[in-house]
Amino acid sequence: MYRYDEFDKAFVAARVAEFSDQVTRRLAGEMTEEEFMPLRLRNGVYLQLHAYMLRVAIPYGTLSSRQLRKLAHIARRYDRGYGHFTTRQNIQFNWPRLVDIPEILEELSEVEMHAIQTSGNCIRNVTSDHFAGAAADEFADPRPYAEILRQWSSLHPEFSYLPRKFKIAVVGARIDRAAIQVHDIGLWLKRDSSGKLGFAFYVGGGQGRTPMVARLLRDFVPEEDLLSYTTAIIRIYNLYGRRDNKYKARIKILIHETGLEKLREEIEAEFAILKTGELKLPQADIDAINAYFHTPDLADRPEWHHNLDWLRSDDPAFDRWVNRNVASHRHPDYGIVTISLKPTGGVPGDATSVQMDVVADLAERYSKDELRVSYHQNLVLPHVALGDLKVIYDTLLATGLASANIGLISDIIACPGLDYCTLANARSISVAQQISARFSSHDRQMQVGEIQLNISGCINACGHHHVGHIGILGVEKKGSELYQLTLGGNAGNNCAIGEITGRGFSSDEIVDAVETVINTYLSVRESNKESFISTYRRVGMALFRQALYDVTGRAV
Amino acid sequence: MQLNGDSKLWGPGGFCEDEYVWADCLEDVGNRCVILPLSVWLQAVDKLDKETLGKTGVFAAAGEDVRPLLRFLAVIPVIALDFPVFSDGRSYSTAVQLKQIHHYLGELRAVGDVLIDQVSNMLRCGFDTLEVRHSLTQTRLAKYSREIFPGFYQPGASLIRARSHRIWYSVSARQSCS
To answer: Under an 8 A CB cutoff, do B121 and A157 touch?
Structure first.
């Protein structure tokens, strides 16, 4: 893991001092809310429906147990005893008092954390693969580059007042687990024919009211040019991106309106100037950052394979959990454990202080002190010996974290919705709770198989409904909540935007509609090996529409 | 564009006298140093003698294309870039292009909605002077001596790279005066 050096520490301390001063000025009335807003947003402080909300950055989703314990402490001391993990691998605290926030930031800085640029029209927290450094299908670790980007983008003088927020994601495995093609810039590490490391640059992905899949801007940018090329893109965006309408201000709209070819010319011209300048990454710097991310020493523990088989056959619930929640590690005696934050009837992504402390202890003891937060709003123990799985499972079971549902229909991605958010038009959490209750039977979930269901409470799409295999979007119509259903979206490889089924459903109808979609899928799939998304791609929307609506377009 | 009695000009030595007046055309200003809108300046440039040219600055709106100015950079004494609202960040990029890429050596001035919380960004992007109307910002700048950050993760004006590292340090403290 990356560790702060003296400079990083001093830098964050200066930021905390600066923001404390700004909060003091705001509380003293020396600053208007309008002037304060962009400053607090740059420090992750939103004004929500009922209170301020603080969003803390978890850079590329990587945490140590010490850091998670600090988050648990903050939830306990300054909030109501829980936190909410987000699709951007961050954590949100929903009830802090403004006057406490400087102190919270100071506490965070003690464990090398901050809330810098978790909001505002600037470069946001860089996200990455939650299995990075452990996954069996990885060819280069994306975290060092995410860290380089994190540092470079922190308090960037030129890019602090962009037309709109700017999101970067980076992956380095065969499977894209970070949905890079729905980011403003998506980076996919690769090697060219000579074996040199670099990036494919995707640009202009995003969701919101105009969802778009990112397009390939350049097939290969050598690693030393990472910052120069990124600067060229964002400079052109800063100069030409629209500022007259915030819904048309993302880089995806600039690309759509200007054309990729024309924009590429501008970017390449800018890059030609920047390429030889100060932003070129010296190999020594890349190596120095890489050194922080060495895989921890993992002792061989082959004797446990047999024991694990025996334990699994002895405890069917444990067997189900291993089956769903443990992924292949590059070391054959180890696994990657995903801890589901999606219990039946729960709030997706929420964890209590007690749960965070338990998970932190597990990470310290059994996962080389490392933790990850996934884009899917779950927690991950990246380096677990197979022999330790049972004790981990038993501990999780005792604290309500043993749901065996990773990748199943109840592993729902959802935004906080109208229960917390000022932007929302409809509730997300209650719909997620109803769906997970409806499909609470593990056998039924296993029968349905791999599927991703996403819920957003408004068109801003924080729940990424556009790229859910099944997506639900809450809107407000004539004073009541209405839910639009989309099908066929997909994040990651073969990224696609879902298609709307038709007329929306009331809050009483939406769960039935989801069940109708599932039953239709089950009736037309070729075998239980054909997943929902593969079946949808084969048969198309028509059959689902037929099942959902009668001939007049009304819900059946 | 109007003369603004309330605004103060702040530079490397603290607050200083502003020699320039704003005007929409040359006829109004007689012998004084003047800042003209970019389009007006471009129309006038061929007719101006060397001495007048040396006393005539240019104002560019946020996002206005400054490429036509590039071949004249050696003779323009001041370029004022506008921040119509502090949240409009286009002039940061224009400043970087003028100073860091095209090595403009004249005075680069930030005008418009200049607030204390953006001062560090402006200086690092290469602005030499700030025209400040906001009274609290004036008060704070009067006491401003140096950057509160120990250094930065990006290159910038008056910053030098640390020996083998990804950090740029400030080379000079600003003088405090009022």
So the answer is: yes
